[in-house]
Amino acid sequence: MNDCSVLLKHFAKGDDKELLKFARCVNEHQLYEIINSQHPQACEAMQTIIRVLSMDKNEGSEKYNFVIKHCISLISEEQLPQKVLVGIVGYLLVEINLMSTSLLLDLCGIFTEAIKSGVCRNEKYLELFAKVLCVISLKEEVFCKEGNESIMPGPQCKAYILNKVCSGRWHPNCVVPMASMFRGIEMNQEELHFIIEKMIRMLPSINILELPPLVYQLLLMSNQGFKRTIIAGIISYMTNVNIQIRKDSDVSNEIAGFSDHLLQPLKGTIILHITYAIKQDQDLGKEFLKYLKVKENPNNLSSFTLALSLAITRISRFRDTVFDILKSNIIKAYRDSERLVSCRWLRDSVHIPLTIEKFALDVIENSSLGWDQVTQGIMELGFILIDGFLSKTQWASSQVRYLGTTIILRCFKVHDIKREEIMEQIIDRIISRATAVVTHYISIFASIVNLINQYSIGIFSKLKQAIDHITSLSFQTAKEIMFILLPLFKANFLLRDYALSVLYKAVFSRSTEARKIAALGMIILLKAYKDMKHYDGFLNQLSQPAVSCSQEFNLVNIHSQSGSNVSHKWVKSEILRHLQRCLSYQASVRETVYKGFYYIAFAAPELQHFVSKILIKQFHKIYQSDSGLLPPLNFNTCLHTVNDETYVVEPMPTLIHYLYRLYAIKKPNEEINSSMKNINLWLNSVVSRMIKCEIEDFQLDKSADFSSATIIGRRNLILCRLIAQVYEVLIEIALRRNDFALADCEEAIRLYERYSQLTQILQESGNNPYGRSVKSKSGLDTMMSFDCISMLVRIVFGNGSINYRESQQVLSQSISFVKFSFIVLHDRLREIGSHDVDLNEVFQHCRSIGRIIFKAIIGETVHEAISVNDDVIRNKSLSLLQLETFGCLINTIYEHLSNKIEIFLEDLDILNGHTDDENEMTYALITVFQKFVNSALNTGTEFKMAHVAMTIISSLLQHLSKSAHRQFQNHYEWLLAICKHQVVDDLQLVKCFVDQLFTISNQTKDILEVLLTMSIDIHEQLGDVEEDVEIEKHNNFAIATEYTAAPTVLILVSSQIETALDNIDWLVCHLNSLIFDENIDQAESSRIYNQLEMTLYPKLTIVAQCLQEVMKSAIPTKTCTECSIKGVTRFYCSMVFLVKHHIQLFARKRGNISERFENLVKVSGSQVTPKVYAMLTYLQANRVVAENADDNKKKLKRKEKTNISSSSCGNVLRESRIIPSLVYAIENYEAHLIRLETKSKVKLMQYFKRSTSRDFKIHGATLQTIIDDDSDDDASKSPIKPSDKKDGNPRKKTKLKN
Question: I want to staple 604 with a disulfide (CB 3.0 to 4.6 A). Which of 447, 486, 532, 954 is the partner?
Answer without folding.
Answer: 532
